[in-house]
């Protein structure tokens, strides 16, 4: 009797050992499948119905998950393409409409319709303002897949964008103080970096009042900092519902406008590997961008 019990125990221990080994092997296969982009499926080395059914169920779930992922990727591509087409389709007639209203205002015979023309133009420019952010969002989605890295002279890039907006900044009557350290270069995506500067300068044109300070200076031995600092009567506040969104409070109107430009800038800077920080101090709104110097 004792011998029989010993034999039964040995057999049971063998069965349990095989089961544990099989479960561990299936777990390793699942970990590999989850960690890699592969169409592999879970297999079983035993002919036991229990493990065969387990493998079939796991593989069925894997197939459904892959199909859902492929469907999601395809839907995202379609949405991106739709947004790209939409922004380009809106951009052309919007630009034409702005040009026509400016021409009508310039050629008017009297001052009776000036206010109406100005209001229409402002509304069209507002639409154009947010359309640019939608285009930037599309660009950001494309660049997230792969950055086009090259050696970029950040100093020249910033100076170039300021020169492009010189007439607009002058027309707004801003008191500009610019202090840019020359020949600061890093490996980055030039297109995204230029979009960062364009968005921040656009925010100056929309919200700045009085003095503006723009600087590019060394922060420490391994980092440099770009600062956009401007006076404003409309402090930018963190949205309580979403800490990553910003709201500009317009003291001359009852409505509030979402600071989409700063959302875009934050995302662009994160994609480029930099740090983004904002603060409001003594009537000044400050945006600080920090980058690491190029190694070597």
From TrEMBL:
<keyword id="KW-0067">ATP-binding</keyword>
<keyword id="KW-0472">Membrane</keyword>
<keyword id="KW-0547">Nucleotide-binding</keyword>
<protein>
    <recommendedName>
        <fullName>histidine kinase</fullName>
        <ecNumber>2.7.13.3</ecNumber>
    </recommendedName>
</protein>
<dbReference type="InterPro" id="IPR036890">
    <property type="entry name" value="HATPase_C_sf"/>
</dbReference>
<dbReference type="InterPro" id="IPR008358">
    <property type="entry name" value="Sig_transdc_His_kin/Pase_MprB"/>
</dbReference>
<dbReference type="InterPro" id="IPR050398">
    <property type="entry name" value="HssS/ArlS-like"/>
</dbReference>
<dbReference type="GO" id="GO:0005886">
    <property type="term" value="C:plasma membrane"/>
</dbReference>
<dbReference type="Pfam" id="PF00512">
    <property type="entry name" value="HisKA"/>
</dbReference>
<keyword id="KW-0812">Transmembrane</keyword>
<keyword id="KW-0902">Two-component regulatory system</keyword>
<keyword id="KW-0808">Transferase</keyword>
<dbReference type="InterPro" id="IPR005467">
    <property type="entry name" value="His_kinase_dom"/>
</dbReference>
<dbReference type="Pfam" id="PF02518">
    <property type="entry name" value="HATPase_c"/>
</dbReference>
<dbReference type="GO" id="GO:0005524">
    <property type="term" value="F:ATP binding"/>
</dbReference>
<dbReference type="InterPro" id="IPR003594">
    <property type="entry name" value="HATPase_dom"/>
</dbReference>
<keyword id="KW-0418">Kinase</keyword>
<dbReference type="InterPro" id="IPR003661">
    <property type="entry name" value="HisK_dim/P_dom"/>
</dbReference>
<dbReference type="InterPro" id="IPR036097">
    <property type="entry name" value="HisK_dim/P_sf"/>
</dbReference>
<dbReference type="GO" id="GO:0000155">
    <property type="term" value="F:phosphorelay sensor kinase activity"/>
</dbReference>
<keyword id="KW-0597">Phosphoprotein</keyword>
<feature type="domain" description="Histidine kinase">
    <location>
        <begin position="85"/>
        <end position="295"/>
    </location>
</feature>
<keyword id="KW-1003">Cell membrane</keyword>
<keyword id="KW-1133">Transmembrane helix</keyword>
